[in-house]
Amino acid sequence: MRQFLFILSILFSVHAQAQESVMDFYKNPINVPPLQMQDMQGNVVSLEQFKGKVVLLNLWATWCKPCQMEMPAFNFLQKRYKDGGFEVVAVALQDTLERIQEFIENNRLTEINPFLDSTELVGRAFQPKSMPTTYLINRKGQIIAGKEGLSDWLSQDMMTLVESELKKNQPQFKLPEGMEVIDRNDVHGGIRF
Fold first, then answer.
1. Predicted TM-score of the model (pTM)
2. Cβ proximity of 146 and 62 under 8 Å
3. Is the dihedral of CA 158, 159, 162, 167 positive or negative?
4. Burial, 133: exposed, middle or buried (Cβ in 10 Å; 0-12, 13-18, 19+)?
5. Tell me, what DSSP letter sits at residue 183?
């Protein structure tokens, strides 16, 4: 009986170690390259424009079934955390604006702003080994983690990860011009106009 329990405990510990983490963290953060992509209106957008936000950069395609399965989770994450400085940047590779628009509309993905890698520079720079591939970018514009393939983006681990990144390096609040703090203990916040 003890031998059986010992073997069972080993199996559980091996299983626990084998479970994948929500993302693989890099020892040294990588600066986001100044790559450009196209938004749904045809405007050119640079990845650098998202500096100051926590970004979940998703490389996907409308023809990729695992990518299709992940998109509702990204839509939820965008809705939940957008007011805290979070942005899902979903860049479609080897696709068209028409197919992306159709996919977004058919799946009621109202929170995500998709982009097209129209020059194929994003795909060449990141060279994903599989689709989808997702990266976490901190507020400083550094890639700190990545994940290849389908993942559970709504897991408690992912929520905790996003929330902890959102708390880091938050921009300081500045009062509008002409306002000053006079008493922080005042019921009205102690702000004078």
1. 0.78
2. no
3. negative
4. buried
5. -
**Mind listing the domains of the chain with CATH numbers?**
20-167 (3.40.30.10)
Q: Are 161 and 154 in contact (CB under 8 A)?
A: no
Beta strand 133-137 with 113-116: parallel, antiparallel or unpaired? unpaired
Residue 168 is encoded by which pair of tokens? 């880091």
CA 31 from chain center: how many Å? Answer: 16
Collapsed DSSP state (helix, strand, coil) of residue 123: helix
pLDDT tens-digit readout, 13-59: 333 333 357 799 999 999 999 899 999 999 999 999 999 999 999 99
Q: Which of 77, 63, 81 is nearest to 109 (CA)?
A: 77
At 20, the amino acid letter reads E
Beta carbons of 155 and 22 less than 8 angstroms apart: yes
> Radius of gyration over alpha carbons of the chain, in Å?
21
CA distance 30 to 135: 11
Q: Which of 37, 36, 35, 39 is nearest to 101 (CA)?
A: 39
Instruction: Using pLDDT thresholds of 50, 70 and 90, give the confidence band for residue 176.
Output: confident
Phi-psi sector, 56: left (phi>0), alpha (psi -120 to 50), beta: beta
